[in-house]
Each structure stands twice: as structure tokens, then as C-alpha cells.
Amino acid sequence: MLLKWGADEYVTKPFSPKVLTARVNALFRRMEQEKDKTALYGGLVIDIAARQVFLDEQLLDL
């Protein structure tokens, strides 16, 4: 169900710390490959290269 809603990954309980670490590292590898991209989610814009997040064209202070 979560993947239908746009999740990239999920871990079911119980899980081992090794599995969690491996999945997080895989996400980081994917993020490195998509460094130049911008993610759009409705009014939310994530500029990965600039490390900025906008909501309805307003820069969010994170």
C-alpha cells in the first residue's frame, strides 16, 4: 500500500539493524544518482542539488 502512495522503500517489523542500514545506504546511493534532479510533490518542491525545500513557492527553513 505504501508503495502505491509514493514511498520508495519500507521495512516491516521486526527488522535487524543490518537490514535497516543496508536499505538506508541503498537510498543514499539512489540519491547520489539523482543529485541533479528536483522532486515535486504537489506544492512541495525539493531541490536536491541546492538542498532546498519549497512549499507553495516559499523557501522552508529546515
TrEMBL record:
PROSITE patterns to which the protein is assigned, alphabetical: RESPONSE_REGULATORY
Domain of life: Bacteria
GO biological process terms held by the UniProt record: phosphorelay signal transduction system
Residue ranges of domain Response regulatory in the record: 1-28
Protein known as: Response regulatory domain-containing protein
Lineage: Bacteria, Bacillati, Bacillota, Negativicutes, Selenomonadales
